[in-house]
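Box 4.2: Ligand-aware structure prediction
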Amino acid sequence: MNYRHIYHAGNFADVMKHALLLRLLAGLQRKPKPFLVLDTHAGLGAYDVTSEQAEKTGEWRDGIGRLLDAPPPALADYVETIRRLGLYPGSPLFTIAALRSTDRLIACELHPEDAQILRRTLRPYANAAAHERDGYEALGAFLPPPEKRALVLIDPPFERTDEFAHLAKTLAAAWRKFPSGVYVVWYPIKHRAPVRGFFEALRLAGVKDLIAAELLRRPDTDPTRLNGAGLAIINPPFGFEAEALPILEACREAFGEAGASVALERIINE
Ligand SMILES: C[S@@+](CC[C@H](N)C(=O)[O-])C[C@H]1O[C@@H](n2cnc3c(N)ncnc32)[C@H](O)[C@@H]1O
């Protein structure tokens, strides 16, 4: 496990992922019934972007760093959450900041050192639990939840060469066990073929109601670069697409280079 998210925290892909995550959580909270958030690849929970590691790549300067002074309206609540929390929050802390006291967070992290920091980050929150374990296995262990409502965030590092295939297999198995869950998968866009293969595998597995929200900073012609990122969402909450588009457009404005684009596409119908 070489990947450490501290080097990338707050980069353009985090901005897009976390701003959309906040809208998804708000969507689930339109109903009073409590829900579980299962964050399978949680990272540290929060990041000090002035740390030596974060400054080594400086990715945050090219991400959240571009928004702090004058956030566009579509990203105002996202930036406000960061200001309120002080550090750059990872997905667990963004989640816990948004949850009601009746909702619950289970956050899994496999790297022992990062899991220890995650545990410390979440200790003050009674409705959050950190687990040092394989997030893919956690899908089998924690679903379906007693609440019968859940948002599952799957945000792997894509270090494995078979990550897309493994993801499709485990996601389809989780969906079969708990088909009404909202599943949110982050994926990198280097070039198109692996992403197409991932969607096709989900279609063949029988998954329904899948959309993709994508930001391409530049056309995906050079597969050695992270040209963009996407969220694949199964069972998106009602109204999410209308809220997501201005966020994607604001990200394109902030991070796009020549030929940048956004897409919000229905991949599989309900
Ligand atoms: C992209 S980072 C997560 C970032 C986090 N979701 C956020 O948005 O703040 C991926 C994390 O997954 C962890 N990881 C890698 N393989 C894992 C596995 N099989 N189960 C759980 N965590 C894993 C890595 O150590 C890394 O911290």
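In the box above, the bound molecule is S-adenosylmethionine. The two ends are 37 Å apart (CA to CA).
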